[in-house]
Sequence to fold (397 residues):
Amino acid sequence: MISKILSAVTIGIEARQIEVEVDIANGLPAVVIVGLPDVAIRESKDRVRSAIKNSRFDYPVQKITVNLAPCDIKKEGSCFDLPIAIGILAASGQVAAENIKDFVFLGELALNGRVRAIKGALPIAMSLKNSCKKLVLPDENAYEASMVDGVEIYPVNTLGDVCDFLNGKGSLSPLTQREHTKIHLQKNQNHDLDFSDVKGQVYAKRALEIAAAGGHNIIMIGPPGSGKTMLAKRLPTIMPDMTLEESIETTKIYSVCGLTPAKNPIINPRPFRAPHHTSSDASLVGGGSVPRPGEVSLAHNGILFMDELPEFHRNVLESLRQPLEDGHVTVSRVNHSIRFPSEFMLVCAMNPCPCGFLTDPKKECHCTPPRIQKYLSKISGPLLDRIDIHIEVPPVR
Fold:
């Protein structure tokens, strides 16, 4: 018998509906999963087997073929555990197959049948807004998906709860759109750091205020201990609050990466990302065999802070040109191209020389002019042209 279950997968920050077909036939006991699955999906057969048995259902001792259609799309992640399990139970007659056609199933299964959280719940829910489908997903992702109006969300905790609901033995209450989409607009952000903490540096603070008001990129040059990093970390506290549309757009990126906060699944404060100077170009702008957002996309609608700017590899710095110019990153592969948004404010900090004390009146600099020139030449002219404000941050005594 063949059963068909609807599920979904994220491609970039967008979602694509997937049809999970399960066929149970006579033959040696085996499970074959086709349709370009990754390692996590191929390993799901063992999780599904244990989850079905520990949920007190019968696991078919036959040949099971699972097809993830369309077959030309690379699938990854563990969100197909639940639809595969439901498909096996429906094909074996343990779940009413006629009750599953209006639902989209997502979820990772634990060995005891518990449904674990997945990545990308928000973009998947947004893709179902006009399809009249109902979404069954883990309870941990329910509030995140409920940000989308017009989609019925059914949070579940165990495989047994889903099967009882489909067989008419239990009930699941749909979750309505959360009220914190309105609460989000209230100005109730609590920051651990505050711009008012900074004493002195009037010139630098004024420059940062102008940068925050106009969304200008800025670079701070000064000796160690002058407060460059301290000023940059406090910059988000004086920036305008994000609108609801900006928050949802940013939350989509964090949802795909599995970085949404557990208590409040919508990203409320503006992002502040500070990658280490050993970061690769792929981690900064995004990439991979299955493209994922990089730091510039995680900083979307927020701040990307690059401390010790000349210490970054030159190819990493040059990769920032397109995101700064276009406001998005296009990652191209053989089969498709994916666009990630990257409208961020670039804040940089650097020393004036390798030792850092070239502009410090109290400490002597021992760097030679060729060494200073080599140090500063790590930052190309085209990149500096995209940084609107250049300021010097003197030491404070």
